[in-house]
Amino acid sequence: MNTNNQAEVTADTSAKRAVMDRLRTTPIDVPALPEIDLDRVIEFEDPIAKFSEMLALVGGQAHVVDDIAEVKTILDQIDVYRDARRVVSNMPEIVEGNLDAQMIDDPHALATLDWTIAKGEFMVAENGAIWIDGNTLPHRVLLFIAQYLAIVVDRSAIVSNMHQAYDRIDRFDGRFGVFVSGPSKTADIEQSLVLGAHGCRKLQVFII
Question: What Pfam family is a match for this entry (predicted)?
């Protein structure tokens, strides 16, 4: 890069930084959030059944199990799990993986990951979503780069609606967290539905 080009880049970067700094320090008046009457939001008599129904509607599959040993038994019946070569498990006490993500520095090394076994903090019945706390993940990309995803969550950890869900989020430290419901899908191109475009091709949820 010659001196003139370098000067132009430096000036351009400085100008962008000045604009961003000004935006960050400018107070903005925003309207207050509406008050929600929680007595009027939806509740379900059987939230587990509703969760399973909504998860199936978006292409996922829920398994209600009474013993943690059943998780591995069910997974072993799935062809793409039996044939998997690279599995990361954040819950080795339930399902053992064969790849230690803690030992991987570069997330790009996970590009050929077959399965991620993750811990869910709680479920949302109205939309079949599960909240994942980022502190349980050595790399946040584990949720999105694996071909297949399994989430294990406690049966008692469920809310009926997203208002209750956001109240629960406040208990976590906020480093990173995400609602997961799947599998990933898109139909933007020629209105042809593609699974796994932006994440897992199939989601299995084990409710213990």
Answer: LUD_dom
